[in-house]
Amino acid sequence: MKQLIILLLLIIAFFIGYGKYQEYKRYNSPNVDYKTSKIVDFEYHNQELVMNYQKAIEDINSYVMLQWTANSIDVRTPKNDDVETKNAVEKYSDKLANIKYYENKLEKSLILKSKGLTNSEIKFLEETGTELKKYQKINANKKIKSMFNASDKMKYGDKSALIYEVQKKLIINGFNIDLDGFYKTETLNAIKDFEKRNNLFADGVLDVLTLDALFE
């Protein structure tokens, strides 16, 4: 009789302990919070996107905990393949894909800023679909063109950074000239030949149209 009572007490203790364990397990899912290895730009030009990213993380954390506590499903590492689990995992994957979309944009923004771009420039690239290299080339050409002064025509023997850049472009276009920044006969003739090729007035003197053709 004594042994039977002990056995019953052990069984009761087991069920109480198992119940406590299930309750602990239900409310203590390990490492629920989403973590990323990416470094993202929280100063991104579109702050609404940043907020949506943070909300998406909160949403996925809540979803993981809900599935764990309500349905005993760990959507990150599911152990079953029943319909309920599959549906829960599929929904989790959709939420995760949403986070990855935001992360990729915010990570790319930070990379572009490390290359010296501003928020407004990054916004321009995104809205126009312009590639970074093309954008940098356009900017570089703008800086070169800004050195041009239509009222100050080049004279034989002049030396300047603008002439140097023009010579570089002429060489790229197949002209065999010295790269020295001096406006001499060979540079004048090369400009004249380039103007002829591009149906421009061929006088060998730089003007806006010649510059535009050289630095298109």
Q: Explain this structure to me?
A:
- The chain is mainly α and 216 residues long.
- The protein has 2 domains: 32-127; 132-214, Orthogonal Bundle (Muramoyl-pentapeptide Carboxypeptidase, domain 1).
- Helix content is 64%, strand content 0%.
- It has 8 helices and no strands.
- α2 packs antiparallel against α3.
- It is rod-shaped, with a radius of gyration of 34 Å.
- 13% of the residues are buried.
SSE order and pairing:
Layout: H1 2-27, H2 47-71, H3 83-114, H4 119-128, H5 132-145, H6 161-172, H7 185-197, H8 208-214
Radius of gyration using CA atoms only: 34 Å
- How many β strands by DSSP? 0
Q: DSSP strand (E) fraction?
A: under 5%
Average of per-residue pLDDT values:
87
Number of helices: 8
- H/E series, N to C? HHHHHHHH
Low-confidence runs: 20-24
Distance between the termini: 101 Å
What are the key terms here?
216 residues; mainly alpha; 2 domains; 64% helix
Short structural summary:
The protein is an all-alpha fold. The chain has helices at residues 2-27, 47-71, 83-114, 119-128, 132-145, 161-172, 185-197, 208-214.
